[in-house]
Automatic annotation (TrEMBL):
Gene Ontology CC entries for this record: nitrate reductase complex; plasma membrane
Protein name: nitrate reductase (quinone)
Cited NCBIfam families: narI (TIGR00351)
Main location: membrane
Domain NarG-like: 9-229
Transmembrane segments: 12-31, 51-71, 91-112, 132-151, 192-220
Catalytic activity: nitrate + a quinol = a quinone + nitrite + H2O
Subcellular location: Cell membrane
PANTHER family, alphabetized: NITRATE REDUCTASE PRIVATE CHAPERONE, REDOX ENZYME MATURATION PROTEIN REMP FAMILY, RESPIRATORY NITRATE REDUCTASE 1 GAMMA CHAIN
Highest classification ranks of the organism: Bacteria, Pseudomonadati, Pseudomonadota, Betaproteobacteria, Burkholderiales
Length: 248
């Protein structure tokens, strides 16, 4: 078997499980050992307007992309085929994903510009903070690059169906990298870098995403009951004190 075939099989049959294992176990280990670092460092006092615009655009875009990728890749075609055809779904993914990706790209570019050009922010930034932002920026660029290729496959949605079958095979522990050989190179690079982000997740500021998910569970927690407790004070302490100056 050629070396290229071995690399292809490793990247799309084995590497996903390596990344998922590090993602889950690494996150748990960091929470257990380094809870103080389980946060996203704040610099909101510096260039607050630029931070507000960049952060809002980035988070709106990235959340839409994460939900869209998860639902789009992991939902079997049989569950939505009665409602929308595969070509229609691909067209919907191109338009909505393109808009969300562009919004996210603009927001992340603002955040990168703010962190790189301001000496005070750059001085308080960890190297991993800047590195993960750069990696995310490159990943967004690759995602936008795939849009013209997806547009070319919109008639039969062949690329989307191949990618969905591969992702669902990973989840069901039946990976099959062979069909991915016909996929255009931007998709492959985008997928490998996406898996690498999961690999780097526990070692970066991205772990604060878990706290965001935990806050959703906070909304559904039961009410905390607070009952008044009556103190057993001696009779003398229960009598109101006379104000100074009052008297006969």
């Amino acid at each position: 078997m050629p070396l290229a075939q071995h690399i292809h099989n490793f990247l799309f049959n084995v590497y996903p499980y390596v990344c998922l294992a590090v993602f889950l176990m690494g996150s748990l280990a960091r929470f257990d050992r380094d809870q103080y670092t389980w946060k996203s460092d704040s610099s909101q006092m510096l260039r607050a307007r630029q931070l507000r615009w960049g952060s809002n655009l980035f988070h709106i875009g990235i959340l839409f992309l994460l939900v869209g990728h998860t639902i789009g890749l992991l939902t079997p075609h049989a569950l939505y085929g009665w409602l929308i055809s595969a070509p229609q779904k691909q067209l919907l993914a191109i338009v909505s994903g393109g808009v969300a990706g562009l919004v996210c790209f603009i927001g992340l570019t603002i955040l990168l510009h703010r962190r790189i050009t301001d000496p005070r922010i750059r001085l308080t930034s960890h190297r991993t903070d800047l590195a993960i932002l750069v990696i995310l920026w490159v990943q967004l660029v690759l995602g936008l690059v795939t849009l013209p290729f997806s547009w070319g496959h919109r008639a039969d949605a062949s690329a989307m169906l191949i990618l969905a079958d591969w992702a669902q095979g990973i989840v069901t522990f039946q990976p099959d990298a062979a069909p991915l050989q016909s996929i255009d190179w931007p998709f492959k690079v985008h997928m490998v870098l996406g898996m690498t982000i999961f690999l780097l997740f526990p070692f970066s500021r991205l772990v604060h995403v878990w706290s965001g998910l935990a806050s959703i569970a906070y909304l559904f927690r039961p009410y905390q009951l607070v009952r008044a407790r009556r103190l057993n004070l001696p009779p003398a302490a229960q009598q109101p004190r006379a104000h100074q100056g009052e008297g006969a």
